[in-house]
Amino acid sequence: MNSKLITTLLMIFVLSACSKEPDQNMSKQTDRPTVTAQFEQSDEMISKYLDQLDDPNTTLDDKKRIVCVDYPKEYKTNYMPSLLKLNPENYTQAKLLSDLDIALSYYKEKENIECKNTPS
What is the mean pLDDT of each run of 10 residues along the chain (120 residues)? Predict the structure, then answer.
């Protein structure tokens, strides 16, 4: 009697554990379109920032705000997390932060911008 009870409980445990996995996969599948949309929106925003930085008509104050505040904030809070969720096998946080640093360093040097007390 005890062995039947233990066997039954074990089977229920195994079956319930197996049934939870598809729910988690479904959640990941339904999140993908949302993450893709977030990434595309962030990518568009970053492209606008880069266009402004390359535009000779953009004021130095605007360029400084973009380089010192707006671009790094958008990159770190939206672009990077979305890209890491969509393509974790090809990107790492360290690599993306390095890419950000390279881009910001280029514009800081090009426009002689110094960021004070702000993330770079």
Answer: 52 51 51 90 96 96 97 96 94 95 96 77
pTM of the model: 0.71
- Decide: 67 and 108 in contact? Cβ < 8 Å: yes
Per-domain boundaries in the chain: 32-120
Residue 103: how many CA atoms within 13 Å on its side-chain side? 18
- Give one DSSP letter per residue of 5-32, joined into a string: HHHHHHHHHHHHHHHHHHHHHHHHHHHH
Tokens of 70: 């707006």
The long-range contacts involving 47-54, CB below 8 angstroms and separated by at least 24 positions, are 49/74, 53/107, 53/111
Task: Report how far residue 7's alpha carbon sits from residue 46's, in angstroms, rounded to the nearest whole number.
Answer: 58
